[in-house]
Specification:
single chain; 360 residues; alpha/beta; TIM Barrel; five-stranded antiparallel sheet; 15 strands; globular; binds 2-acetamido-2-deoxy-beta-D-glucopyranose; Chitinase_II/V-like_cat; Di-N-acetylchitobiase; signal
Length: 360
Amino acid sequence: MSWFLLLLSSTVLACRAAVCPCERPELCLHIRQERDFEVFVFDVGGKAWKSYNWSMVTTVATFGKYDPELMCYAHSKGARVVLKGDIPLSYIVDQDNRTAWITEKVNLAKSQFMDGINLDIEQSVEEGSPEYYALTDLVKETTEAFHRELPGSQVSFDVAWSPKCIDKRCYDYVAIAESCDLLFVMSYDEQSQIMGDCIAMANAPLSQTLNAYDQYLNLRIDRKKLVMGMPWYGYDYPCVNLTQEGTCYIAKVPFRGAPCSDAAGKQKTYKWIMKQVNVSLSGRLWDNEQRAPYFNYKDEQGQIHQVWYDDPESICPKADYVTSKGLRGIGMWNGNILDYSDEPVARQQTAMMWNALLGC
Ligand SMILES: *[C@@H]1O[C@H](CO)[C@@H](O)[C@H](O)[C@H]1NC(C)=O
Ligand SMILES: *[C@@H]1O[C@H](CO)[C@@H](O)[C@H](O)[C@H]1NC(C)=O
Ligand SMILES: *[C@@H]1O[C@H](CO)[C@@H](O)[C@H](O)[C@H]1NC(C)=O
Ligand SMILES: *[C@@H]1O[C@H](CO)[C@@H](O)[C@H](O)[C@H]1NC(C)=O
């Protein structure tokens, strides 16, 4: 191809990318205003977003395929839409590679009319390693570039439920929190490293979850940078045996240095859980220590399972903590996994899950 044609085709591409796909061109404008309380939703694709409670949503992190219709709609509701950012850390130790990656993301945000980026780097990192410093620099440089190129844009970073090297994620949490707009604290998968008995337990036990916020706050991380992430999913564990007291022993599946893990179970959506609890052996049970619901069921092969999950009753004290501590807001993984059908029971359960985000 000649120089001229190459130039022409890239110009055409650039122009086409910049055309606003919304019905009204003003819907492509970036969202700049800050709202007092964040409701941060991860969306994994499809059209479930049409049924979200948009009077609450402030940010949608799009982990599915780019959906211009979602962008236009969110903007019409004053909500931000942000990109997903994920890159193997070994690649961005190199400054040129890091800068190139950031530039690519800023350009993508511009061409898709997005309002920021959510950095979802869940890799293990050793303290003091080249990756450790590169990660801190990545967050800082990404935030600077987005704020410079897209004024009012939001850069968020996903952290584990506790800052104590969970899953060997030994990051510089303090520096990362300082340089980005907010941390989405993934207050779930809290059984990823089981050190005691290999038994099924709650995805996000109440006191363990809240104590971990005190750990973040003790690092002098600004409370207004913390968004509490709720699980809208649970874990289904096949029981190696189920004791008379109802303890479900699980297979030993090691993870990042721990002998057992929630990897022995399968993640299940709240939608699935609400159907399965009705055909369970036990019906909904409540664990008073972990403050979480669970149930037992038998599958078609006769295998007993125990399912641990969150519902409005377990979510509401967490949401109350968010307001009483004055945190930045709340969110969930992920918005898609409720039952958004027209069925009356499903509608009510779904509305209650959304409303639980605002507290009891
Ligand atoms: C730069 O990034 C690419 C992937 O985008 C990777 O293959 C390459 O190894 C990286 N280079 C360095 C020096 O890290
Ligand atoms: C259940 O399995 C666990 C782990 O294999 C074992 O320690 C325990 O004794 C078993 N309990 C019963 C009642 O079989
Ligand atoms: C589950 O059972 C309850 C109580 O019997 C009933 O009200 C509800 O409709 C059922 N839910 C589903 C999803 O079938
Ligand atoms: C959506 O959330 C608002 C609170 O912001 C609540 O008043 C309203 O009832 C919710 N809508 C539905 C359908 O539940």
